[in-house]
Design goal:
Length: about 260
């Protein structure tokens, strides 16, 4: 299995093909996150840190909405891609390579109004110790009363069902199709899941289909486990929203 840094380094150049239209999807993601933050008093031009920003799926649209955004990620290639996407859109996003477990050391001069970590990033932290380090570092990056918002997969349900993966999703038209799918291998106790993400691209003219595979491990982090870790990390208030209530594609947790 690849480390998170290697996994996302390998995906950085083709991450957009996980979506039919990455920028349109990013604007939707940013809009949902902005609405959830606004409901808790965090409005532009608030200072916002996306501590697992990837190629900028949330960070860039939030910058376009007027938030003063810093984005960090453990993947240098993802940060470079985010920087390229931000420059192409003339968005003033500050971007840095940083491990979420020590992100406050990189952004220590900033006391953010909000920190976000979306798209199932926290379950890359496989041990209680690493999760604790990350949440404490996030807490130190926030001003007093600041908001932490994260989204993860619904591992409470997934751990019970233990699905073998996700179906292939295809986009585009014949000759220029692309898509992705995942194969999952669960640990015997259901505490961890190894995933292999397949990225498919139809090459025309060319030999046909190009396929790349990227593998990593997630912790099947249940809501009660994350709530307990947030409380221990200094967050007194923890609220969970279902996808239906949040208007998002994953459960969302909001902590202060």
């Amino acid at each position: 299995m690849e480390s998170p840094a290697d996994f996302y380094d390998g995906l950085a150049a083709t991450y957009h093909v996980l979506f039919d239209d990455w920028w349109a999807a990013a604007q939707w993601h940013g809009g949902v996150v902005a609405a959830l933050l606004a409901a808790r008093g965090v409005l532009p031009p608030a200072l916002l840190l996306d501590c697992t920003c990837g190629i900028g799926t949330q960070a860039l649209p939030l910058s376009a909405m007027g938030y003063r955004v810093t984005g960090t990620d453990i993947s240098a290639q993802a940060v470079a891609r985010a920087d390229s996407e931000a420059r192409a859109r003339r968005l003033p996003v500050r971007l840095e390579v940083a491990d979420v477990r020590v992100v406050d050391r990189v952004v220590h001069e900033r006391q953010f109004d909000a920190v976000i970590s979306c798209d199932n990033a926290l379950p890359h932290l496989l041990t209680d110790a690493d999760l604790s380090l990350a949440l404490r570092s996030i807490r130190r990056s926030l001003r007093d009363g600041g908001v932490f918002l994260a989204s993860i997969r619904d591992y409470d349900a997934l751990k019970a069902a233990r699905p073998p993966g996700t179906p292939i999703s295809m986009y585009g038209s014949p000759g220029r199709r692309y898509g992705s799918g995942q194969a999952w291998t669960w640990s015997p106790d259901g505490a961890y899941v190894d995933i292999t993400l397949f990225v498919l691209r139809e090459e025309s003219p060319g030999p046909g289909w190009g396929v790349s595979a990227h593998s990593t491990t997630y912790r099947a982090l249940r809501r009660a486990e994350l709530t307990s870790a947030l409380n221990a990390g200094g967050f007194a208030s923890v609220e969970w929203l279902s996808p239906l209530d949040a208007g998002y594609y994953q459960p969302v947790v909001i902590a202060q």
